[in-house]
Amino acid sequence: MGAPALADYRNLFVGGEWTPASGAEFPSVDPYRRQAWAVVGTATAEDVDRTVSAARKAFRDWRRMGVYERAKLLFAFADALERETDRLAEIETRDNGKLYKENRNQIGFAVRNFRFMAGMADKLTGETKPLDNPMFLDFTVREPRGVVVLLAPWNSPIQTLSNKLAPALTAGNTVIIKPSEHTSASTLELGKIFQSVGFGDGVVNVVTGAADTGAALTSHAGVDMISFTGGVGNARHIAANAARNVIPLTMELGGKGANIIFEDANLDRAIPGAVSGIYAAAGQTCVAGSRLLVQESIYDQVVEQVAERARAIRLGDPMAEETQMGPAAHEGQFEHVLRMIEEAVADGAELVTGGKPAFEEGWFVEPTLFGRVTPAMRLAQNEVFGPVLAATPFADEEEAIEIANGTDFGLAGGLWTSDLNRAHRVARELESGTVWINTYRTSAAQAPFGGVKRSGYGRERGVEGLMEYTRVKNTMLDLSDTVRDPFVLGT
Fold first, then answer.
1. What would the pLDDT profile of 130-164 be if each residue is shown by its tens digit?
2. Which residues belong to any copy of the Aldehyde dehydrogenase domain (predicted)?
3. Domains in the chain, ordered, with CATH?
4. CA distance linking residue 139 with residue 126, whole number of Å
5. Where are the alpha helices (DSSP H) in 393-437?
6. What is the pLDDT of residues 242-251, one digit of tens each?
7. Distance (Å, rounded) from C-alpha 310 to C-alpha 386?
8. Residues 226, 151: contact at Cβ < 8 Å?
């Protein structure tokens, strides 16, 4: 018997039609089996031109659709997505190796995102402004930006995309989605759902490919806005393209989250929280609590217990219910994590547990914990995006804040304490877009999410996320019959 046929994802979804990509095809590799399971097409610059034209053509009618009708379509899409949860979760697991049960949960969160935003469609209100001159009526309206490019990452394709896609469509924009080249299949499947629900041709478009496709999209003069989730290096190129075309950009980038445990914390909750913060999703999450800051009086105890739990984590088939941690999503990430571990050892960090590949099959890295990591070490400063935790002791509240803020990142962080006053003091001082208190890695559709410093700018989710995809227009009406001096500014 020959090898099983590869799933065919070589078509692009453009203008409501499925058409072959003009560029070379490439494989999607199952990181658990280290085998290609699907083939994907590459969109060329000509394909991108065609897609931008389709999205721009669709924008006129989509933006003019009544908000109730638009909301009904978004609710219908959420219902259809919910029905497809199991199938899509399995596709994502084949693509990125994340646990099937985790992918199911994240797609469920995407459904919630769409329902929240659909409910906001008729609540994008403007304001009437009271002016000094009572004979002027002044008011604002919020309008869609136009054609929006959405660039999604490989670690949580549908869930992360929903943070962008739901508000962009709710606001009346048309969209072009480019998923990561490592995880294109589930996003192409979303195109089929949009088509079945009855979205207009060109409202949602999906193109696939790697860096060249992304560059063609982000530099295209017909694009009105870009939203990107990914790494700082790629963000610089995208920001330069956006700047050349003078268009808005939102970016959700990396993190180096500090998970701070004070000596008065409830350790029965804090230690599982530390484990969840770094080993869930194999550490491949931008909000990972990859730095564990522990007050000196309990440092040895906490590190010992976290290490014990790390050693007990069950690695294996991400489709199996009993598996707790899957592989790295692709070979390049697997090799990057191992290099970061080697750097930590070379810098003098104390390897407490893990530190090497877990199996010969699959791109698995052992749950790894380094102790006595100083703030200057590369492991304390650079994002690993893998199951590698850096533990650092601190003396007091002031030092904890100083260490926590001592990186270029500021996406998310957490703290564990029984002192309510301390909780508020420390949360206020942390340079982070999200702060969790006595919890970690918890999300809500209503809660805004985004970073500071090199973790990006702009917000996703919540009302704040919706507003990113709108622009404000001001209208002023003179109610008087007065003819004013044409050479004097009216006020």
1. 999 999 999 999 999 999 999 999 999 999 999 99
2. 18-474
3. 7-253+451-474 (3.40.605.10), 258-437 (3.40.309.10)
4. 7
5. 397-404, 420-429
6. 999 999 999 9
7. 13
8. yes
